[in-house]
Amino acid sequence: MVKTEQHVVEIPEEIRRQASLSMGDCDTVFSFQPVSDKEVSFAVWVAIFDRSAVIWIGEHGVEPDMESLIVAMYSQSFGSMTSTLMARATNDAWDDAGEGLAGRLARKMNAQIFLSDQLPVNFHQPPLCHYVEKKLFEILMVHFVL
Asked: How many domains does the chain have?
């Protein structure tokens, strides 16, 4: 059975404030823009299959596309295995963050995860990245029995 859902996840004021404070003095390769009032949510599209899920995450109001696609699976013998199937660019830092996210979700859910990550760069920095992962896990928990 296949089930599809769309979610819009609001980012709480406390998380937005922490992101603006913690990222202001962070020295990274990304040029960080503080979280504005406009960036208060992100969108999630999920297709659930038997022991696998296809997930698109991106900015609310943006049409989902599979511009990049990461696959991750978990095995007791080999641990997490991830691979970028399609990438926007060869040096795309988002895909690195997406691979980590897909691998952690595959391990937690013990399922194969296909992830298209279209979130802005600042969503991959703490505390926003932790909040995004927590919300994705909550959405998936509804469908998978651990």
From this structure: 1
